[in-house]
Amino acid sequence: MDLDGLISIIKNGNAAFFVGAGISRQAGIPMARDIECGIINVLGVEDNDAVVYKEKQLPLEATIESIIKYTSSSEKLFAIFHNVSPQRNHQLIARLAHSDKYQVPVVLTTNFDTLIEQAGAFNVFVDGVHQPSMIKGLEFPCLVKLHGCVNSIGALCATIKDVANERAFERRRYALKYFLDGVKIKDVIVLGYSFSDKFDISPLLRALQLPVRFWIINHNDSNLLRSNSLSDMPDDYPLRSYDGALIDLNTDKFIDVLWAKTQNDPVNSLAYEKLQYDAKLALWRDDIEWKNGYGIVSLISAVLFRNANCYNLSNRYAERAMGEFDKSSALDYMCILSQLMGDNLRDLGDLSEAVKNFKYANKYAKISNRVDYSAKSLNSLGVVMEDYAKDMDIKNESAFPHSSRRKAIKYYDLAIKRAEYVNDKELSSICEANKAIAMKNIQNKKYRIYAFSILHRSLKVAKKVGDVKSVARYYGMMASCLSLLGRKKWAIDLWFRAMQTSKDIGDSQHVAIWTANLGEDYIDIDKIEAEVYINDAKTSFAKLKMIPQEKYCDYLLEKMCKNI
User: Which residues contact 42 (CB under 8 A, 6 or more apart)?
Assistant: First the structure.
C-alpha cells in the first residue's frame, strides 16, 4: 500500500477515521505516556522509583481513575485538554467528513478533547453520556467518542472508571459494531492510535471480527513509506486477523499529501503548539493538597505503585502518607491506607501482616462510621482466611483448612450485611461470590449446591453492571462447583463460556486456566479432546511463564497416559 492507494480508498467513499491522541499533539495536548510521566514527576516520586513506574507503561485511564477515586476534585487534572485550538489534522478530518465527494461518514476517537468538534459540526455520540439506543438515530457525519469527553467531567470520570476496570464493554462493542459494520464501512484509516491497549478497544476489535479493512498509519520521523500486511504481524498483534496494513509513515507528510489531493486551498504550515501540561499538572497537585491534605500526594503515589504491581514501593509511600496525615482528622485516609497496605502484604505472601492491616482498616472504618470501608476490610479478611486454608491444603494439613474456611465465611457474612446496609449491590455480590468459593472448597455436597446458587446470583449482578471480567470468573467458579458435584457435562458448557468471555476481553491468563479445567473435565468423557485442551493450556501457561500451572498440565497428561 502506497500514499496514492490510501488516498484512493478515501476518495472511493465508505471510509471511516479512527483517531487517537497522536493527532492532537500539534495542538499542545501531550500523549498519554507524557501525561503519565508528568503526573508521576509532579507527585515528587523519587527518581529511581519513577523509572520503575514508567517502565510499566500502564493505561492512562487506570492512572486517572486511581487519582479521581481518592481526590475530591478532578477539573484541574483535565485542564490539560482545555484552552487548545484545532490544528490541520482536525481541520482536514472535519472537511472530509463534510464533503459529499469523499464520504467519510464516521469518525471514531478515544480522545477526551473537543478539537475535532471545534474543527467542524458533527452529530456526536459520547460513551457514558448518551444511551446506546441513540446511536441508530444519529445522522452523518457523526463523531463517536468511545472514552468520554471533557465537556462532561462527571460522565468522563465514570467512563474512565469503566475502561480502567474493564467494564461496560457492551456499550463500546455495540458502538463499534454499529458504526463499522451496521453502516457498511469498508475501510478504516487509523491515525495517532497504536492499538497497544490490552484491556479495551484492541480486544473488542479482535473479538468482533468486523468485515472491514484497517489501514494503520504508524508514525515515524522518516519520509520513507513501509507497508506490512496485518496478516504478517506477530501472533499477539490484536488486528492480525483483519485485512489491511500497518504503514510506517510520517503522519505530517500524509496530511500534507492528503490535503493537497483533496482540498482546493493550500495546506496550513506545520506548527506545533508548546506543550504546557507540566505547569497545569503542578496547579492540579497544589489544588488536591489544599483540599485533601499534604499526605494525599503520597497516597496517590502508593495507589499508582500498587497498580503497577510494585507492592513494596506502594507500602513505602503508604507509610509516608500515614506520617503526613493528621490521624485524628483523616480517619478515612487511615482506613484507605491500611486497606492498601494489607492488599500489598497479601500479594507479597505476608498473610499475618496483611491480617493486621485489614483489622486496622476495619477499626478506622468503625470509628469514622464508614460502613462501606468496613465491608471491604471484612471481605479482605475473609479472602486471607481462604489463603490460609489453601496453604494448609498444599501442606496436607487436613485437620485445619476447613476451620479457616468457616472463619472466612463468617467474615463474608459480616461484609455482606454491611454492603447491603449501604446498598452496594456490587460489593455485596463480590462478597457472596467469595463466600461461595469458600463453601465450594469445603468437602460438603450441600455447601457446593448452595455455593452454585450464590455464584449464579453474583453472575447476574456482574452482567448487569457490565463487569465482564467477573462474569468470566463466575462462569468458571460455577463450572468448578458442577465438576466437584460430578456434573461434568454441565461443567464443560460453563468452562466454554468462561473461556470465550475471557477471550473476548483479551484475558489470556484466564483463558489458559479455563482451558486447563475444560481439558481435565473431558478426561472421563473424551480423552482425545482432553489431550487437545490440556496441551493448548500448557502451551499458553509456558508463554505466560505460569510454571506451577504448566507443571499441573504435565501431571494431567502423564496421568492420562497411565490410565490408557
Answer: 278, 281, 282, 284, 285
What is the predicted pLDDT for the residue at 121? 86
DSSP β-ladder status, 187-191 and 15-19: parallel
- Please work out, in degrees rounded to the nearest 5, the angle formed at the alpha carbon of residue 474 by the alpha carbons of 514 and 357: 105
In the sheet that 187-191 helps form, which strands lie side by side, from edge to edge? 123-126, 142-145, 106-109, 15-19, 187-191, 213-219, 243-249, 226-229
Q: Please, which pLDDT band fits residue 507 given cuts at 50, 70 and 90?
A: confident
Residue 258 has pLDDT above 70, yes or no: yes
**DSSP state at residue 443:** S
Q: Which of 217, 185, 233, 238 lies closest to 5 in space, CA to CA?
A: 217
From the CB of residue 302, how many other CB atoms can be counted at a distance below 10 Å? 29
Helix orientation angle between 331-347 and 311-324, rounded to the nearest 10 degrees: 160
Give the number of other Cβ atoms within 10 Å of residue 237's Cβ.
16
538 pLDDT more than 70 = yes
Higher model confidence: residue 526 or residue 221?
Answer: 526
* Residue 305 near residue 337, CB atoms below 8 Å: no
Instruction: Inform me whether the pLDDT recorded for 398 exceeds 60.
Output: no
pLDDT-based confidence at 26, cuts 50/70/90?
A: confident
For the record, the C-alpha cell of 519 comes out as 481439558
Q: Would you kindly state where each structural domain of the chain is located, as residue ranges?
A: 3-262, 471-564
The CATH fold assigned to 471-564 is 1.25.40
CATH of 3-262, one of 3.40.50.720, 3.40.50.150, 3.30.930.30, 3.40.50.1220: 3.40.50.1220
Q: Residue holding cell 475502561?
A: 163
C-alpha cell at 313: 514501593
For residue 422, give the amino acid letter.
V
Domains 3-262 and 471-564 belong to one CATH topology = no
Share of the chain above pLDDT 70, in %: 95
Q: Report how far residue 181's alpha carbon sits from residue 14's, in angstroms, rounded to the nearest whole number.
A: 11
Going 152 to 106 to 62 to 506, the CA torsion angle's sign is positive
3-class DSSP assignment, residue 269: coil
Q: CA–CA separation, 56 vs 527, rounded Å?
A: 41
Residue 128 in grid coordinates: 457514558
Going by their DSSP bridges, the two strands 106-109 and 123-126 should be labelled as: unpaired
Measured CA to CA, the distance from residue 40 to residue 272 in angstroms comes to: 24
Distance CA 441, CA 427 (A): 22
Question: Nearest to residue 117, comparing CAs of 81, 162, 86?
Answer: 86
Nearest Cα to Cα of residue 301 among 479, 71, 554: 71
**CA 210 – CA 205 distance, rounded (Å):** 7
Do 38 and 130 contact (CB within 8 A), yes or no?
no
Q: How far apart are the first and last CA of the chain?
A: 54
Distances (CA, A) of 153 to 81, 149, 162, 237, 282: 12, 7, 14, 33, 20
Taking the C-alpha atoms of residue 418 and residue 414, their distance in angstroms, rounded to an integer, is 6
Q: Which helix (H) or strand (E) holds 347?
A: helix 331-347
- At 459, is the secondary structure helix, strand, or coil? helix
